[in-house]
Design goal:
mainly alpha; globular; Glycosyltransferase
Length: 649
């Protein structure tokens, strides 16, 4: 018995049931592999993305009526019982998501007198009306003429000419902010009006008539600086009409050069829906014809995100093939089954072919001279690879066949080392992206303008370097471990920036300490983390964590245990050296009891996040490969009695 064991032990799982679950999951995953070796699962966000897809069609007057009907069916299904729409499964109603979903349904022909529309309208009015929506929603309403342009913060396109020392510069914000904002700057300068062929309005969603409303813009933060930024915004909006037209035209041209250089073919600007949609609207506003190569490619990029079934359809925020493939490879490698050998080799060859080595992306503004060598999240997004995907892929290639991929691994290590921030941690796409004051400008009411170092990404990078042979005394590794020790929460957990939430962050970081040779037997840091996971186990033996935990007031909220979060907790405890703890056996029992007919697991919950408290994600693959990963590692360590491997993942 270790010092962490609790008093309640679960019966040990029989080898046959464990083997059966692993074999069934392996077969299901192998059936899902694409012909060229990769995997890609659906990636679902909240109602805003499919709603914006409908709105985009009406902005352009390019409407697919049959597809709209299917998207409307999806929107009706995900509506809360109170009439609003949440940001994640069984989440609280969100005002902005509700306004967009309502408008999309009305644009598509749904009667405002239908019961589900009446309930939605009541919720909006109850919460102050559409005037109280966030900036992005008000911008969309301005494009449709539903609010005056004074309803949105100043967004002068002349930002394109700002020097790097200026308080606001595109290099100072995250990649997603850059790619979303630049086409918005063009739209704000041109102020086009949606074609809106059916002339649909939503005036009924306003408490005060939109043209009479005087309180659209608010400070993004309740601070002195937030109020100062709001005053600057007011001044800028008064000065904007005074900008000479020739300067504005040059600024629009500069913004379009930025967009066209990064348009990324049919993978789209930034390879994310908001940037793609904004770019398509900007191209249309500037008079690009529908058959112009740039506009046609931008339209196809958006259309490729649609998931359509017989009765429903929705639009994904992006696709995740690099991430899905690398994580599936990790799970399959853990099984140590000969049947996966060919599949893993094909997948790793596919991953190796996707390494970005020729394009110097925006990240180089902070790291000039650094050679590219990372991987993106999507099929292609060469200007914006990220270190999290790079670390996950490198770990898979290294474990699969380090000699075969030594060139790719060397480039990956070089790039990841170069992307470390001075704090010792790693952000996802940029280094030193920590200009926190910018999160208080009026445009940034979502609070997600930046890409600072995070615990989960940093843990992955440290684990990668250690697994690849870097010593724990190497400056980058030592700096990363020191960063992780500093960022550990008081309760022993780590924050999960890209997965929900503290369970994900804690598992991600424990991998780094495992690779460093630290477990509960020799590390107080690891013991505290393992204690956190044990305390958070639910009565059913699983683990779960709600998206609302990104609000400190809901720090420990768990509506239900989930397969993916249970798998993370199990992998975290096993990384800590607690494979034989009774809590681990109980977690394994939870997974074994909840398999579906396909040999995998069902999970309607959103266990990932795009932007905490703003935008959440449901990776449909998480409940496939993560439980397999956890069960296979448990089999290796407990029934088979193998030693704990010092892997970074």
């Amino acid at each position: 018995m270790t010092i962490l064991e609790n008093v309640t032990a679960a019966p040990r799982q029989s080898d046959s049931s464990l083997d059966g679950a692993i074999d069934g999951a392996v077969r299901a995953l192998l059936r899902a592999q694409r012909a060229d070796g990769h995997w890609v699962f659906e990636l679902e966000a909240d109602a805003t993305i499919p709603a914006e897809y409908i709105m985009l069609g009406h902005f352009l007057d390019e409407i697919d009526v049959a597809l709209e009907r299917k998207i409307c069916a999806y929107l009706r299904r995900v509506q809360n019982s109170d009439g609003g729409w949440p940001l994640f499964y069984r989440g609280d109603t969100n005002l902005s998501a509700t306004v967009k979903a309502y408008y999309a349904l009305k644009l598509a022909g749904e009667s405002p007198h239908a019961p589900h529309m009446v309930r939605a309208r009541d919720r909006v009015l109850e919460r102050g009306g559409a005037a109280a929506c966030n900036v992005f929603t008000r911008f969309a309403l301005a494009l449709f003429g539903q609010v005056p342009w004074r309803a949105v913060p100043a967004m002068p396109v002349e930002i394109m000419f700002a020097p790097r020392w200026f308080p606001f510069h595109l290099d100072k914000v995250s990649y997603w902010s850059r790619t979303v904002m630049v086409p918005l700057l063009v739209l704000a300068a041109l102020r086009p009006q949606a074609r809106n062929p059916r002339r649909v309005d939503v005036r009924e969603l306003f408490v005060v008539a939109p043209e009479e409303e005087k309180h659209y813009n608010r400070a993004a933060a309740p601070t002195v600086r937030g109020r100062e930024f709001l005053a600057v915004d007011t001044l800028l909006r008064r000065l904007e009409p005074l900008v000479p037209s020739r300067i504005r035209a040059r600024a629009v041209a500069a913004a379009m050069r930025f967009i066209l250089e990064r348009l990324n073919g049919e993978d789209g600007l930034g390879a994310i829906f908001p940037a793609m949609a904004n770019a398509l609207m900007a191209l249309a506003a500037l008079g690009y014809e529908r058959d112009h190569p740039a506009r046609a490619a931008a339209k196809r990029a958006v259309e490729r995100l649609v998931v359509a079934r017989d009765d429903e359809a929705y639009c994904q925020p992006c696709v995740s093939p690099i991430w899905d493939t690398s994580l599936t490879v990790h799970a399959l490698l853990e099984t140590k089954d000969d049947v996966v050998t060919r599949a893993v080799a094909d997948a790793n060859d596919w991953l190796a072919s996707r390494q970005v080595t020729d394009v110097v992306g925006d990240w180089a503004r902070k790291r000039p001279g650094l050679r590219p060598g990372g991987w993106a999240f999507q099929y292609w997004n060469d200007h914006y690879p990220d270190v999290d995907d790079t670390a996950a892929v490198a770990l898979a290639l290294h474990r699969g066949d380090a000699r075969r991929y030594r060139g790719e691994l060397a480039r990956a290590a070089e790039w990841v080392l170069g992307m470390q921030s001075n704090s010792g941690g790693w952000g996802a796409f940029d280094a030193e992206n920590e200009h926190y004051a910018l999160n208080e400008i009026p445009f940034a009411d979502h609070g997600a303008l930046l890409d600072p170092p995070t615990d989960d990404v940093s843990g992955r990078c440290v684990g990668m370097l250690l697994q690849m042979g870097f010593h724990k005394d190497h400056p980058a590794v030592a700096g990363g471990l020191a960063y992780l020790r500093r960022t550990q929460q008081a309760d022993g957990s780590w924050f999960g920036r890209w997965g929900t939430n503290y369970i994900y962050g804690t598992w991600s970081v424990l991998n780094a300490f495992l690779a460093a040779g630290e477990t509960t037997t020799n590390s107080l840091t690891v013991r505290r983390a393992a204690s956190y996971l044990l305390r958070f186990q639910q009565r059913d033996g699983g683990w779960g964590e709600d998206g609302s935990t990104y609000d400190p007031a809901n720090r420990s909220c768990c509506k239900e245990s989930t397969p993916s979060q249970t798998a993370w907790a199990l992998l975290g405890l096993m990384a800590a050296g607690e494979a034989h703890h009774p809590a681990v056996a109980r977690g394994v029992a939870f997974l074994l009891e909840r398999r579906n007919a396909e040999g995998l697991w069902d999970e309607p919950w959103y266990t990932a996040v795009g932007f905490p408290r703003v935008f959440y994600l449901r990776y449909h693959g998480y409940c496939a490969f993560f439980p397999l990963f956890a069960l296979a590692r448990y089999r290796n360590l407990v029934p088979r009695g193998e030693p704990l491997p010092r892997l970074g993942f």
